[in-house]
Amino acid sequence: MKRGTSRAARGAEYASVSLDVDLIGLIHAALHAACIGAALGWSWLAGPARATAAESGLHRREGYTAVAALASPHATQAAAAGEHVIYAISSTAVARYDRRSGRLIDVADGAGARHLNSGFLLGGRLFLAHSNYPHTPPESDIRALDPAGDHLEVFHRFVDPPGSLVWCIVNDGVWWCCFARYGRDNRRTVLIEYADGGLEREVRRFRFPAVVVDDWDDMSASGGIWAGDTLLVSHHHHRVLYRLALPTTGDELRLVETLTCPFPGQGIAADASSGGLVGIDREHLRVLFAVPTRNGSSPH
After folding, report:
1. pLDDT in tens, 115-128
2. 186-207 pLDDT, tens per residue?
3. Are 234 and 263 in contact (CB under 8 A)?
4. How many beta carbons lie within 10 A of that of residue 230, not counting itself?
5. Contact by Cβ (8 Å): 69, 10
6. DSSP letter (8 states) at residue 181
7. Residue 296's CB: how many other CB atoms inside 10 A?
8. What percent of the chain has pLDDT over 90?
9. Regarding predicted confidence, which is higher, 230 or 297?
10. Dihedral sign, CA of 127, 222, 264, 272?
């Protein structure tokens, strides 16, 4: 861990366990946490994060529990994690940390980045959604960071995007990109599937369910990943994950369930090393690692 917050203070914040967490879920989380803590050389955390602000208005089933944290001043937009490296993402830069020791390796600048968002790893490279938010008209592109690189490069620039790119992901060789709108226009947030393994030609556009949009507090879907044949989508500032499925007909995504999580919104990514998720706690400037608290939550 980086210096600053004591282990005792960090542990105390997660010591409060809500009454609706089942015993099996806690045992499941503890076992995963012990493995992660041993691998990272960090103390592990037990129990869900305590809510400090308004929460989602939707009923949530038990989803993910925080088990480890890494302090980083760059943990303000999103996080990603590989086998050996942890990435803390701010609006303009990406900090790389050694996964075992928590030591800062370096900080890659954003090459003029204005608003980096969610990131994910593919073939050893980190890909990040980027936009000019809150400026208009919206401009969006995807930035990439090579394993040995020290700065971000523009991987693809969108022409006349339908909003601000907040997250992108590749699933089975296919690109999916979410462009956000905010305020009264947030219902126009759209998920686009692209063709031929590239980003030049659209296949389909999907709208988000009205019940989910109404839960966004005039914000939008800050992060998203594929979890099997469904999507896990995060809020901008609530501790909630929406599990969504593609529709059999029409263009509106279907809400399967809503899940608890320790991330107060922002970008998320799958963590292959733990079988869980990695995200951030922006208020406390930390990367958080979370594992499923019940069967069926795993993103893999």
Report:
1. 999 999 999 999 99
2. 999 999 999 999 999 999 999 9
3. yes
4. 17
5. yes
6. -
7. 13
8. 70
9. 230
10. negative
Chain centroid, CA 245 distance in Å = 18
Question: Tokens representing 70?
Answer: 């890494």
What does the block give as tokens for 119?
């990131």
pLDDT, one tens digit per residue, over 35-94 is: 444 444 343 454 444 444 457 777 778 999 999 999 999 999 999 999 999 999 999 999
Sort strands 286-292 and 276-281 into parallel, antiparallel or unpaired: antiparallel
Let me know: does 41 contact 82? Beta carbons within 8 Å: no
Residue 75 DSSP class: T
Q: What's at 171, amino acid-wise?
A: N
Matching residue, tokens 């919206």? 138
HSE on the CB side for 210, CA within 13 Å?
0
Q: Are 27 and 295 in contact (CB under 8 A)?
A: no
| Spatial CB neighbours of 31, under 8 Å, sequence gap ≥ 6 | none
Length of the chain measured in residues? 300
| Backbone torsions φ then ψ of 23, nearest 5 degrees | -60, -40
> Is-contact 42 1, C-beta < 8 A?
yes
Which residue in 65, 1, 8, 67 sits closest to 33, CA to CA? 67
pTM of the model: 0.82
How many alpha carbons lie under 13 Å from residue 268 in its C-beta half-sphere?
Answer: 33
Burial profile 191-216: b = 16 or more Cβ within 10 angstroms, e = fewer: bbebeeeebeeeeeebbbeeebbebb
- Are 265 and 53 in contact, with CB atoms under 8 Å apart? no
Q: What is the identity of the amino acid at 270?
A: A
CATH of domain 7-292: 2.115.10
Rounded CA separation 64/235 (Å): 14
Q: How many other β-carbons are positioned within 10 Å of the β-carbon of residue 43?
A: 14
Domain limits, the chain? 7-292
Q: Which two tokens stand for residue 62?
A: 């038990």
